[in-house]
């Protein structure tokens, strides 16, 4: 289903996707202990990231790649708060379902596989903002002097950017998992994806302080659009037309990667052979 | 006598399971080679993270790029060895949720022993090798002045550090019985512990020193031994022989691991079915 089809979707189908979104949200709320654990982990690693990055800044004489202490702390805590939203592990239930052949059942459902997966994903991931994302950000705000932009514009654009990043991260993992229709066993591919994606999206180190050539290389991939862009927009590192350009790049990647997943699904459907009986 | 016979029988069974796992992984040669490349890439990219930071400045927390290679190499090599041996314990949540763990309870062997020997992930050999290469390069370029004590320290540190990480994996598996869907959390601590281990602990605030120096003692797997090898002073007013406490940290790690595991298995009541 292309984006234009989605707009002209019959109301019954639209309701199904909305329900999937709500179900995803509710599913996550059932595992509260896991959510609390996730919060503890996010905060602990926030402190760890802050310690090493601030020590690096201090060694570099106070600023590095346009980051000063306040901006770096904003990077640390906003990125930690977004951890629950994005999937950089490369793994999705679909890859496993293709391997076992259960995917045949999914194909029989009167729903678009990609849109249904995206709905559930957005539901489960957005839920994590409540027990993990927002508390992480609050703790960061209370314990450290992070610099945040004033005025509503960065926050409004930032919210859009967060949603685009979450969508893009899913669509990319979806496309990756669809390759299992040909490859069957994609664990090596998933691991490679996880490693490259988490580095290039700026999970450990902001892309802005990579050495020049590495930054250029990273920015040619869709990965910075999955984490670095919303973090830069929300923290005021990228403002004005710069911020707008970054968000437009996110839109472009969503379209490209979404289309890729769509085409892979269509081709793979015809190719699919379920083994056994 | 009969006891010994049973024990030998048990080991044969474990060996048979493990060697079948090894054969199975090598059966699909192309897939296995890709797995190896993927695993080696983990080491490369993780080192790139260290290199991006340390490469831009002279030293962070008292360590230069050359000396942090020692820290990184030690941590990477020992973590990956533990991962190779018991890393599959992180599949526990799947076993718990799907109820397949119950099968382990039915067999007349300790559940933990079964879980540990149920698999061996050969692709992780690539990371062990990668860590070893970086360690050796680090030892050469940082100009370690070798003494018999330092050789002994390295020989003690490596198995003890593997034990520390193995303990972390098992503790994480034990906690899974309570969290059910908490793989992401425990993974964050296990893999995050590994991330913490390649950092100079001197930059940490006290709270982190408590977490990664004492509770999950990963500072003993790379940073502290590297300081001793390089004749650097230990921060936080600790004596120079602190690095020799790595085996103590390993014992502590296993006490925590077995405690968590016991609590977990006592708590577990089956998933029906």
Tell me about this structure.
The complex is a heterodimer of chains A (277) and B (273). Chain A has 277 residues and is mainly alpha-helical. Chain A has one domain. Chain A contains 14 helices and no strands. In chain A, helix 2 packs parallel to helix 7, helix 3 runs parallel beside helix 8 and helix 5 runs parallel beside helix 9. The longest helix of chain A is centred in the last third of the chain and has 32 residues. The N terminus of chain A is likely disordered. With 273 residues, chain B is an all-alpha fold. Chain B has one domain. At the A-B interface, helix 3 and helix 11 of A face helix 2, helix 9 and helix 10 of B.
Overall outline of chain A: globular
Total strands of chain B: the figure is 0
The dominant shape of chain B is globular
Nearest-integer average pLDDT of chain A: 87
The fraction of residues assigned to DSSP E strands of chain B is under 5%
> Over all CA atoms, what is the radius of gyration of chain B?
20 Å
- How many structurally independent domains of chain B? 1
Biggest interface and which pair forms it?
Answer: A-B, 38 and 44 residues
As a percent range, the share of strand residues of chain A is under 5%
* Biggest pleated-sheet summary of chain B: none
Quote the distance from N terminus to C terminus of chain B: 39 Å
Order of helices and strands of chain B: HHHHHHHHHHHH
Please name the defining characteristics of this protein.
heterodimer; A: about 280 residues; disordered N terminus; B: about 270 residues; 12 helices; globular
Secondary structure elements and pairings:
The complex is a heterodimer of chains A (277) and B (273).
Chain A: H1 3-7, H2 11-29, H3 32-59, H4 69-81, H5 93-100, H6 103-108, H7 113-127, H8 129-143, H9 153-178, H10 180-183, H11 187-200, H12 212-219, H13 228-234, H14 240-271
Chain B: H1 2-27, H2 29-54, H3 65-86, H4 92-98, H5 101-106, H6 111-116, H7 125-141, H8 148-179, H9 183-197, H10 206-215, H11 223-229, H12 246-267
Helix pairs in contact in B: 2-3, 2-7, 3-7, 3-8, 3-11, 8-9, 8-12
